[in-house]
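Side project, low priority. Logging it here so it doesn't get lost.
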Amino acid sequence: MEQEQERGAGAGHLLLFPFLAQGHIIPFLNLAKRIEGLEEPRRPRITIVSTPRNVAGLRRAVPAGSSIGFAELPFCPSDHGLPADAESTDVIPFMDYPALFFATESLRAPFEKLVSELAAREGCKNVCVLADFFMGWTAESARELGVQHRLFVTSGAYASAVTFCLWLRQPTFPRPVNPDDEQAVPDFPDVRLRHEQLLNVVITEDESNPMTQFLRRTLNLHFRHSGGVIVNTAEEIEAKGLEMIGKLSGVVGGLDKGWEHVSDVVETVLGDGEKARDMRAKAAELKKLARAAVSVDGKVKGSSVLAMERLLDGAFR
């Protein structure tokens, strides 16, 4: 495992851990750059965590003198039946995606070593992990190691809420079923989808399918152990989606007080407090910046969250 010396000197140390896909890595990089642009003392130290090939690409994507650091976790794709260079979904066929998803769980031991070393050096309260929703085990690791954890949802709130709900609990379609048959989404009865749309999200209705179990497990780990959620949206753009994300906090089950963050985040965006008013006042700016925030060299490739106030307010307490 290789870790660069972090060059920033802000309040706390933020570890960003994207899933191994360019559509996930790019939003995390854009978020890191945006946080890096904050003025001290608000700016934390930033380290992006990934596998060697991904880190090599990320290093090339930051300008000289950037304070963003990187940590490489050892990863051998061939140990998981993948090609030697398979450290991202863009270099493997769709049929091999499940193997890469499952292989990410092998990163847990080196990740925990990295976090424990940082916590010992800088103090648990000064370390916060911000992880992709496909990396649910990081939430459990962070809880066990006594550091903060936040979930970063790189897609919008509405689509994410519906998708997460379907991953956790699928609607039951009567048999025989036709592609155009409709059912309500569990917990969101006003949202209906056709059977063919369901299969676009869950791939299979077989509850014993390993990928189905992986998705359910990773979300439950986030929901059970994470201390915050950051969603790529703003209230004026997606009020309904934020309401749905808030509702999920009460229907998933196994939620301890650490999951109170969901209502906190939704309140920050939707409420009448100073932070909510400030966020609404910035909505026009967010809309203008959204395209720039999701692009690399002028080409749109991913998504990124722009509202960071809640993340930085709550990450280092």
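Brief comment: Residues 210-225 form the longest helix (16 residues).
Revisit when time allows.
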